[in-house]
Every structure is written in C-alpha cells, then in structure tokens.
Amino acid sequence: MYISPPPSSFFFLQTFYEDPRYILFIHMVINDAIQLTVTITLFILSYIFYKINVSFCCSFILVAVFTTRNTPVNLAGMAIERYIAICEPFRHSQICTVRRTYMVIGLIWFICVAPDITDLFVTLATESLSFFHGSVFCLRQNVFKDPILAYKRQAFDIIYFSCVFLTLIFTYLRIMFAARAISTEKTSAQRARNTILLHGVQLAMCLLSYISPSVELVLHLIFPGRILEIRFANYLIVYILPRFLSPIIYGVRDKKFRKYFKMYLLSNSCRDKLQRVAPQHNK
User: Fold this and answer.
1) Please, are residues 230 and 220 in contact by the beta-carbon 8 Å criterion?
2) Strand partners, 216
3) How far apart are CA 189 and CA 93, in angstroms?
4) pTM (two decimals)
5) Is 104 exposed, middle or buried (0-12, 13-18, 19+ CB in 10 A)?
6) 50-84 pLDDT, tens per residue?
C-alpha cells in the first residue's frame, strides 16, 4: 500500500513566510532557540568542568549576548507591525512587505551586534595572548574585564530597553484610541492591544536581568556554597520563562496559527494510522 509523503512543515506554509507578522515571530523563535541552546550548553559545561577555555567562553558569551539583546528589539518591531495593521490598514501591505521585514531583521542584528562586538576588540587589545589560552569560570565579567565595558554595557541596556518600552507604550495607546474610533475592527484592535500588553509583560520579565546580579549576591550570602544552583534558578526565571511567552502569544492565542497547527497535528495523526495499517494490508 502506498503511503503519501508527509505534508510540508506548517512553519513553511506560504501563509506564514509571506506574512511580516509571522516572519518576525519565527525569527524571534529561532533567535530564542539559539539563545537557550547556547546558554544551557554553557551552564552544563560550567557545571561539569567549572572552568573552560577563554576563547571558547568568549564565543559562547557573545552569541548569548547578541541573541538576548535581539529579543526586546524584535518585540518592538512586532508591536510596530501591529500598530500599522490596525491604525494604517490600507497602507499595511505597502509598508510591511516581506523584503522590508527581512531588512528590519538585518537591522535588528546590526544594532544588537555592533555595540557588544567592541567588547571583544577591547579585550584583544588589552589582554595578552596567554589569557585566551587559559581557563576561566565562564561569566561575562570574567572574560571582558575592562571596567569601562561594564559602564558601556549598562548605558546600552538602558538605551535599548527604554526605546522598546516607549515603543510598546506608544503603539498600545494608539491602538487603544483606534479601537474606540473604529466600529468595524474593534475585535482585531482589542486582540492587537492584548498582544502588545503581553509583549510588555515579556519585556518586564527581560528587565529582571538588571536586578539578577544583585539578587544572586544576596542569595550567595544566604546560601554560601550554592553558586551553580543559584545561577540555574536565576537563569530559569530571567531567561527561560520570558521566552515561553512567545509560543503562547502567537501559538495558543493566534487563530490562524492555531488553525494550521491543528491541521498539521491531524495530518500527522492520520499518517501514523495509515503507517500502522499498511503492514497489515501487505500481509
């Protein structure tokens, strides 16, 4: 009995990769997957070996920093796309094209990579070659040790998160006012407003990274000798939980995504049943 090949993964359906909204969402999912993979690997290596090679550590830290910075900036891009869709519906298809969406993704990577790649150049200029052949407990402050880098990092963190916060506030208020003025698209406006609110919650959880060093310090004083356990608990709350919101926002809540996801599951279920029945027919 012939079994037809499985349908294409629903992530590659035309309705998704030609819609700027879902392109930005899938970019964020891939970005967060890379971030989680790198940081979890780094945590496991630190737990097993405690100290690892400095050059290896630099690569892991830079990828983790780039992808961590990408998340809030991507949220701002998604909020702006929703604002244009609700407040400028007739111009949305002209402004939010697929080509421009990929250009925005390239811009996101540029503005997130450019400030932090300088940490590597400063470290290469100030540290000896033997430093990169040594081993260290892999933390950002243990590798990029120049004090000026810490001040630069704080300044850029404030700039990034302030811009994203103001963008979310602006788009939320404009959509709220549009929902009151428009009588025909109130449901769409309400849904977009709730989405931006959830983005705000996601951003607030990302902001926990600001206070996490202070929280870790207090926990170290309360529970001495529990460094790795405290780091893991902090990592779970600050880095993993915010990234669980993305599938909820665009997976469970989104009608189109939910529709195709159900179709994908049903098609897989039917295919599995056919594969189980096929051997019996062949007998």
Assistant:
1) yes
2) none
3) 17
4) 0.75
5) buried
6) 888 888 888 888 998 888 888 888 888 888 888 88
